[in-house]
Amino acid sequence: MPQFEFFGHDRMDRTADRKKTKRGIMDQLTLFGLLAVAAMLIFYALEDRSHWFVLAFAGACALASVYGFLQGAWPFGMVEVIWAGVAVRRWRKRLQNSN
After folding, report:
1. What does the DSSP 8-state code read for residue 51?
2. Is 0.70 surpassed by the pTM of this model?
3. pLDDT of 16
4. Which pLDDT value is given to residue 50?
5. What 3-state DSSP class applies to 19?
């Protein structure tokens, strides 16, 4: 089976390590990803209330991108980087329109 390396991490070894450790329902990386994506959902729902929620959504997208890269799912990480950029652009536009 081919092994993939990304940022010096061996994906197959991490998966095996996760299976070996039975410390609970999810590991810290999975919890981080869950919180990042949950924040994205919450801030997206609140965007109409303030331009600051648009910026918070961009930050949550950036965190989800970090999760994607750390987890080894680089396409997810790249998509989230793009979404973060789009959200920052929308935030700037809304900030200019409010002044």
Report:
1. H
2. yes
3. 58
4. 93
5. helix
Measured between alpha carbons, how far is 71 from 14 in angstroms, rounded to an integer?
A: 9
The predicted pLDDT at position 97 comes to 87
For residue 55, give its domain range: 10-98
Asked whether residue 5 is assigned to any structural domain, the reply reads: no
Place of tokens 């080894």: 72
**How many domains, the chain?**
1
Structural domain contains residue 3: no
CA distance 37 to 57: 10
d(CA 61, CA 89): 13
Whether the pLDDT of residue 19 is over 60: the answer is no
Q: How far apart are CA 48 and CA 60, in angstroms?
A: 17
